[in-house]
Design goal:
This protein folds into two domains: 100 residues, Alpha-Beta Complex (Ribosomal Protein L22, Chain A), CATH 3.90.470.20; 103 residues, 4'-phosphopantetheinyl transferase domain (Ribosomal Protein L22, Chain A, Alpha-Beta Complex), CATH 3.90.470.20. The chain contains six helices and eleven strands. The chain is globular and about 50 Å long. It is of the alpha+beta class. Strand 3 and strand 4 form a beta hairpin. The longest helix is centred in the C-terminal third of the chain and has 22 residues. It has a five-stranded antiparallel sheet with strand order 7-11-10-9-8. Strands 1-2-6-5 form a four-stranded antiparallel sheet.
Amino acid sequence: MPLFKIITVDEQTKVFIWKVEESYEWLADGIKLTPHCQSRVNGMKSEIHRRGFMSIRHLMAEAGYVDSDLYYDDHGKPHLKDDKYISITHSFNYTAIIISNKDVGIDIEKQREKILKIANKFTPLDEYHTLANEEALIRKLTIVWGAKEAVYKIIAEPGLGFLQHINVTDFDFDDSGTTTHVRFNGIDGWFDVSFFEFENFTCVYAMPSNSKPKA
């Protein structure tokens, strides 16, 4: 059972990551889905999406939850019925959840050249001229994208723009964390972001900051 990693962020916050290697049949065995979720799985044309969906239910079980404990609001944001916060992500053969007593967001992304083509849609590219090579640029852009995606999942409001409204504080790879600032539709807030890399993937998770960073 490839539970890839559990990260204890603090006493109330944990990250669970799964490496999807099993068949759909193996993953589905013993997992009871709500009629709504079963209908969703049945409608998925991609086998990796179906397997990823079921692997997330195994991650929830690791955290002590079943499928019926999960529901989605009108904006598509997931919630737990016990009022804990949850965020969900999947990328290729990895899935992950983060559960906390604070609002949280998580994102996993595969490090790919494709991000170079869309970078100007979510960040000012001229800020990255000091990076040594293309590999470093791809790595950094993937972290920035993941940070913005994780924060977007926390706020979950239509119209929130990655380029216009979410700013990621510059960081070094060794930092393993940074902050983001969001100013949008009455929101003026800071978020703490943590990141790590593995097997050419990047995982980023975020939560509201307890204090405004010093300038």
